[in-house]
Write a structure and sequence with these properties.
Keywords: Hydrolase, Secreted, Signal. The protein has 342 residues and is of the alpha+beta class. Strand 6, helix 3 and strand 7 form a beta-alpha-beta unit. It has a single domain, classed as Rossmann fold. The protein has 10 helices and 15 strands.
């Protein structure tokens, strides 16, 4: 994941490095980590970051009393299961705090959600530019953008807030159709076993839960998007309308998913989430790829600062009984990051 501020419902994640300039390091699932080249070791540590989304996540509503934000615990588990640690980014963090947290991570993860404007959008836009700048400066600093995260990246790259189209793909499991099997090399799918790759195109192993997306035609017709992204897979919604389900940047370690790779193993609130062994393997392979990319970051932040900012300093809230789609969420009361259940 990546280092990102917590945002009201839309989410960003960041991963901090576990040690300071050590000879060996481990990956941390957080989604923003800038790095200046220290001597890279054979093992590297990655710290991803996630950005919080507006709202408490449990009730499905914005908090009535505070500037609450949340990060679903499934994104945290997704990153941790691949061997990384997470630093949460609050979308309403002061800019100085946001930048400080981003200096502690090795990658960023933009989560799903619903917020497409206001402070959340501005924070995502700022973090996205930092990710590109960090890569341009020589650090390998990956971004994973999931569902809403992909939609926001489309809006930012195209500079068009209306670039996304309507689709009917809520609570739907789907296949992933590769545009060409040559696109697999060097992508998130590169290390998938051949039999699992084949099943992706025949079995419904990808969980979809969105009302918006972008068609291959619209992406290709937009010069900014077609110059930035290579389409890896497409999927069909309930009306057989085709949308881009996975895309990867040509020149940056940026991978975007309209589907939810984290849900297969870590969410149970939606009836159509696939939980088969194959589906769980999809989650694990995608998570492993993200953290393998984060390990390439040369960022080695001070261990004490990392420990003070890890998600371990907060407690998740069980909200599965509410039937809102998430089993557990981390709820933050305001930019201070204090957990509502502490």
């Amino acid at each position: 994941m990546a280092t990102t501020p917590t945002i009201p419902n839309p989410k960003l994640r960041s991963i901090p490095s576990s040690s300071s300039a050590s000879s060996s390091s481990s990956a941390f699932p957080a989604i923003l980590a800038p790095a200046r080249p220290h001597r890279r070791s054979s093992t590297s540590m990655a710290n991803p970051r996630s950005a919080s989304h507006p709202g408490d996540g449990a009730s499905g509503r914005l908090s009535n009393a505070t500037a609450a934000s949340n990060i679903p615990a499934s994104y945290v588990k997704f990153v941790e299961s691949a061997g990384a640690r997470v630093i949460p980014l609050l979308y309403n963090d002061p800019e100085e705090t946001l930048l400080d947290k981003l200096s502690l991570v090795n990658g960023v993860l933009f989560t799903g959600g619903w917020a497409k404007k206001g402070q959340y959008f501005e924070t995502i836009k700022k973090v996205f530019q930092i990710i590109l700048d960090r890569n341009d400066a020589g650090d390998h600093f990956p971004l994973f953008a999931i569902c809403l995260g992909f939609e926001l990246v489309n809006m930012i790259v195209s500079k068009d807030h209306n670039i996304c189209e309507s689709f009917s793909a809520e609570n739907q499991a789907s296949t992933l159709q590769f545009t060409n099997y040559s696109v697999i090399q060097g992508s998130v799918f590169e290390r998938f076993p051949p039999e699992l790759l084949e099943k992706l195109s025949t079995d419904c192993l990808a969980m979809q839960n969105h009302k918006f997306g972008i068609s291959p035609q619209r992406l290709q017709e937009n010069y900014a998007l077609s110059s930035f992204f290579k389409i890896l897979t497409t999927s069909a919604d309930e009306n057989n309308a085709i949308y881009v389900s996975t895309a990867q940047a040509y020149n940056y370690p940026v991978t975007c998913f309209q589907w939810h790779p984290e849900k297969n193993a870590f969410e149970w609130g939606l009836s159509m989430i696939p939980h088969s062994e194959d589906a769980v393997q999809v989650t694990q392979h995608v998570g492993n790829y993200f953290i393998s990319e984060a390990r390439k970051s040369s960022n080695r932040p001070p261990a004490e600062k990392v420990l003070n900012n890890l998600i371990y300093n907060y407690s998740p809230t069980y909200c599965g009984k509410e039937g809102k789609g998430y089993d557990e969420v981390y709820i933050f009361s305001e930019y201070t990051g204090k957990s509502l259940n502490e």
